[in-house]
Design a protein that fits this description.
This protein is α+β, with helices and mostly antiparallel strands. It has one domain. The protein contains five helices and eleven strands; from the N terminus they run ααββββββαβαββαββ. A four-stranded mixed sheet has the order 5-6-8-9. α1 runs antiparallel to α2 and α4 packs across α5. It starts with 19 loop residues before the first helix and ends with a strand.
């Protein structure tokens, strides 16, 4: 052994099941019995699955004119909304991810990491569970607060992000 190791991303033993608190908060939000703040708080504390898919790279054409896949890359998936803005897709668990695309590979990440990836990719939002059972969108100040790792506070039924003091 040469001393190199792969760091544990913190999800050892994760079998892809949606977290109970997240599933409950999203279901309540969609039914109208839960608040946006409750759903956002559950997302903030959850592991999300960000899908990666194979994207064709360079293509080589043989002497018969037939194309052969030369290279491929793995990429996260962005969805373009009707308003032209992009959103990173994320899922609460494997059942929701497979309902969207059974071929996508799940990458377990914290919600903060997903938010940071969305902003780095130029996305304006994260869409959680786009194929259901309960879809939730994190955008604007909520996306920024999540990416910064700020604390989510409840203020009169609404949310506010509190940056750490210096």
């Amino acid at each position: 052994m040469d001393g190199r190791s792969i760091p544990d991303p913190g999800f050892a033993g994760d079998h892809g099941e949606p977290g109970a608190a997240l599933a409950s908060a999203l279901a309540a939000y969609v039914k109208g019995s839960g608040s946006h703040v409750d759903a956002l708080a559950a997302v903030r504390e959850s592991r999300l699955l960000v899908p990666v898919v194979a994207v064709l790279g360079e293509v080589e054409v043989d002497e018969q004119g037939l194309a052969h896949d030369k290279t491929s890359d793995m990429a996260t998936v962005l969805l373009q909304g009707a308003d032209g803005r992009m959103a990173l897709l994320a899922f609460s668990g494997m059942p929701a991810l497979q309902a969207w695309d059974a071929e996508a590979r799940p990458v377990p990440v914290t919600a903060r990491t997903a938010a940071q990836a969305a902003l780095q990719d130029g996305a304006a939002a994260i869409v959680v569970d786009v194929a259901g059972p309960a879809t939730f969108v994190v955008e604007g100040q909520d996306l920024e607060g999540l990416a910064q790792g700020w604390t989510l506070a409840r203020v009169g039924g609404r949310s506010a992000w509190v940056a750490p003091g210096e």
